[in-house]
Amino acid sequence: MNWIKTKENLPDEGVNVLAIVFGEIKIMALCRIDDDDNNTGLIWGQVYDGLDGDVYIDDDYDVTHWIPLPEKPKQD
Q1: Which among 60, 68, 1 has a CA at the least distance from the CA of 33?
Q2: Residue 76 forms part of a structural domain
Q3: Global confidence as pTM
Q4: Nearest to 65 by CA among 38, 37, 25
Q5: What is the DSSP track for 10-31?
Q6: Which of the chain's termini has less CB crowding within 10 Å, N or C?
Q7: d(Cα 54, Cα 72) in Å, to the nearest integer?
């Protein structure tokens, strides 16, 4: 499977994908949350549980490429 450019195609909203974060040279599991208010870009989020069990969303990512998550491994 090849990486997909965000300029060519986007994942559905709320679907977790692997994404390349431009400038940070790292691959993260992110989801497309929504278009931004000005329709000039996208909001991507990384959702994680804090120590107190709350859910936080970071949305400061400049994603250039994404790929669907692989299937879960099968248990033996």
Answers
A1: 60
A2: no
A3: 0.68
A4: 25
A5: -PPTT-EEEEEETTTTEEEEEE
A6: C
A7: 25
